[in-house]
Amino acid sequence: MTLPKGFGSGGGASSSDVSKMIGRRVEDHFGIITAFFLALWGGTWAGIAVAVVYYPWAYPPPSAHFALTCLTIIEAIGYMFCVKVVTEGTSKAKTYNGAIAGIIAAVAILTIITDSVFFG
Fold first, then answer.
1. Percentage helix, strand, coil, to 5, in the chain?
2. Number of Cβ within a 10 Å radius of residue 120
């Protein structure tokens, strides 16, 4: 592999050279990923709520129930995948399992409550 000028010592790339070229490490971005997941779910919830309130003839409650449930499942799988990939191979890999489970469980409970109360 040809390295940019200033990297490597003639023979190849060391791990410190590669990490300098790549940029910041992402193991510590659990909070950011979680915040974006929760914001994504909140945006999904708000979008479905607006559709049901303002366009009830086009988006009836059974459709809203189905959409919120399916999108929550898809978003939760994506969130879990992101955190697992980011922490793979680090000492923090098992540290976040409880937090991931708790956050996904909280979102699932909020989804069930929303589906029960608002979408019948």
1. 65, 0, 35
2. 9
Query: Crossing angle for the helix pair 97-117 and 30-54, nearest 10 degrees?
Result: 10
Determine contact, residues 30/96, Cβ cutoff 8 Å. Answer: yes
Report the distance separating Cα 20 and Cα 7, nearest Å. Answer: 9
Q: What is the pLDDT of residues 76-120, one digit of tens each?
A: 999 999 998 888 877 777 788 889 999 999 999 999 998 888 776
Q: Count the helices and strands in the chain (H runs, E runs).
A: 4, 0
User: What CA dihedral angle connects 28, 32, 38 and 39, to 10 degrees?
Assistant: -170
Q: What is the pLDDT of residues 76-85, one digit of tens each?
A: 999 999 998 8
Task: Please check whether residue 62 is in contact with residue 119, taking contact to mean a CB–CB distance below 8 angstroms.
Answer: yes
Tens of pLDDT, residue by residue over 58-75, are 888 888 889 999 999 999
Tokens of 18: 């590669």
